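Researcher: Hi, I'm a grad student and pretty new to this. My advisor asked me to get structures for two proteins we've been looking at. I'm not sure of the right format, so I'll just paste the first sequence and hope you can take it from there.
Model: That works fine. Here's the first sequence with its structure tokens right after it:
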Amino acid sequence: MKKLILSLFLLTLSTTASFSAEPITGTWKTIDDETGEAKSLVRIYEYQGQYYGRVVKLFKDPERTAKGIKGSPKINGLDIIWNMHDAGEKFTGGEILDPKKGKIYTCEIWKDKDGTLIVRGKFGPFGRNQTWQPEPPIKAEPKILTPSIPEEE
């Protein structure tokens, strides 16, 4: 009987682990899908079981502000991804901000076989993908982040 219970427990544990998406936490270099240029570094972090993404470095014009967002915050230091959760093969259920346009879209994120991150912003059935590249963390980054979700004006 003990062997049966142990076997069922191990089977459940291995089945649960196989349904988790590849981890996405870390620092990522964002690549503009239209120009192919590197735009920023985004740190994806976990907070209370959900995943968030914060711009930690903007390559061009680091003082630029987010259009259409309450308080016109600087893009540098702004959370642009929030409320994502592990849905098996992807992270879903959250939103992503396009700070250049001031628009918020639903979001899906998954890790590609080559180790890059595919970030998809969607509006209904339409959307577009960006490929983000892994980057070493910035030394000055705090270890623990608390989400700060922006609001549209």
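Researcher: Oh nice, that was easy. Here's the second one.
Model: And its structure:
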Amino acid sequence: MDNKSLSHTRWKCQYHIVFIPKYRKKVLYNLSDLILLIAMYRPGPMQYLEDMTGVKQGKRFIHYKIPQMESILKSTYGCVAFQEQVQELFKQPADYSYGQADLVRRAMSKKKEEDLEEERHSFIYGDDERAVAGCVKNGISEENANTLFSQLKEFAGYAFNKSHAACYAIVSYQTAWLKYHYTLEYMKSVLNHTSFEKIPGLVMDLKDMGIKFHVPDINCSKQEFRILDGELWFGLGSVKGIGEAAVGVVEERKKNGVFQSLSDFVLRIQPSKNILEEFICSGAMDGFCENRWERLMIEKSVLGVFASRHPITLFPSVRECGAVEIERLQKYHGNQNVTVIGNASDFRKCRRKPDGAEIAFFKLSDFTGEIEVCCFADAYKKRKNF
């Protein structure tokens, strides 16, 4: 079968990426690739990921029309990913100094069009006052030099600093290694260092990982999230409204033994009414009584998550209903129509000032997270009696 030539989206005047139907290249990955992925996985450069990975995997190869580009872009599989590469693409083809190249890069990132059009002439033909030779004097055609400058204007707007990407890559590698080899310990640490609002998403991750997760228990939980017999227990200090009050509970339990009953707890701790209610509503006192009434909404209000059972389990799954999980909504943009189902809470309504029409607000949650919803006047009028 003949090779199918595919032109690169932006660099088609500089090189061609060629598809190879049959390849046997063994693909190896290292820290440099992780650094590159972090720099590329953002709006703008993300559109070149398919071409980049194709070259990495040996499915495609690159023919450069400007020879100097190969040594600069070879390590990133033909794609401009880093600010340092933008500087090199000024230095090598046109003999800019690194300082001069960085000044032009900054002007490009700030879109100073008037200055850049003057700089275009210097890049192509040179500038004797600054000792810039220019591309033409280095054997590059005027057409290719002009195209390269236009492309550099686009790339300079999003090119990432490689040293920053390297720092993120090291942390990412360490995080992935810990999460894989010490999953339970890693998730415990994450839960102990996250905000209250992010706990629901993390609890969903625990369920996906098959990790058993318990609501707080006044005799089993510590101040922070803890591991007990290979299972995770909600930290008393993470119950909404408890905070540092959990320290005294844990210290009393260590000193004088576990609490034998609700009365024993009250006599020994002498908690305020609010603290006692938060512990009861969170399920921390369930061990004293087997016939508790489930109060899921209260549980959610103090834990930030439906830990024992989510009301949505009473209905068909999100995907069975043809809906989208809340955590995936960020992938949708513009005027796309998306169906979402969940548990509504914190309902409130008000009247629009110009005409007094009613509008409504509420929170919608599922296993993966929670969002704020606004129901505008026309929609609310049609559906308020549902």
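Researcher: Is there anything I should tell my advisor about the second?
Model: You could mention this: The chain is about 40% helix and 10% strand.
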